[in-house]
Amino acid sequence: MNPVIIDGFLKHDEFKKLQTYMMSPDFQWRFMPVISHINEKGNKFQFVHLFYQNCKPISPDYSILTPVFRAINMKSLYRIKSNLLTRTPEIVENDFHYDVSDFTPEQAKHWTTSILYINSNNGYTKFETGEKIESVENRLITFSANLRHTGASCSDERSRVVINFNYFT
Description:
Blueprint: E1 4-6, H1 12-22, E2 30-32, E3 46-53, E4 56-57, H2 66-71, E5 76-86, H3 105-108, E6 112-117, E7 124-127, E8 132-134, E9 140-144, E10 149-152, E11 159-168
Antiparallel strand pairs: 1-9, 2-3, 3-4, 3-5, 5-11, 6-9, 6-11, 7-8, 7-10
Protein name: 2OG-Fe(II) oxygenase
Organism: Marine Group I thaumarchaeote
């Protein structure tokens, strides 16, 4: 499945509640010394928040995603992870990867990845095909989990924040 873009994905008030909380000092982030894999080159890092992993919610903040669950037909969840990349002087692209790295590409094609952009900035998601999807708040992109992609930092805002949903439909 090629990437499908939905702008204005959540109702305005639902999105603003989610965005305000995730961008606040009350939301907990964990430092991750890698972005896509352990053998990355350079000094790349990000902050992450895992909502769901190993077939269960693991975050006390899991319920803030209820509006998303109502809007996406997910039969089985694999993982929900939020990423925060800090501002860089110039935009930095990271390594291409699959979000469902435990799967072979053949297995991954049966799964779906959706990315919900929490804030607007000049960072983006890029696919191996060269296609770039701009970071626009309340935008959802959905694509087959076997499409390798990467995120790029931003240089115009303090951070780039997204939520990655990996699921079976």
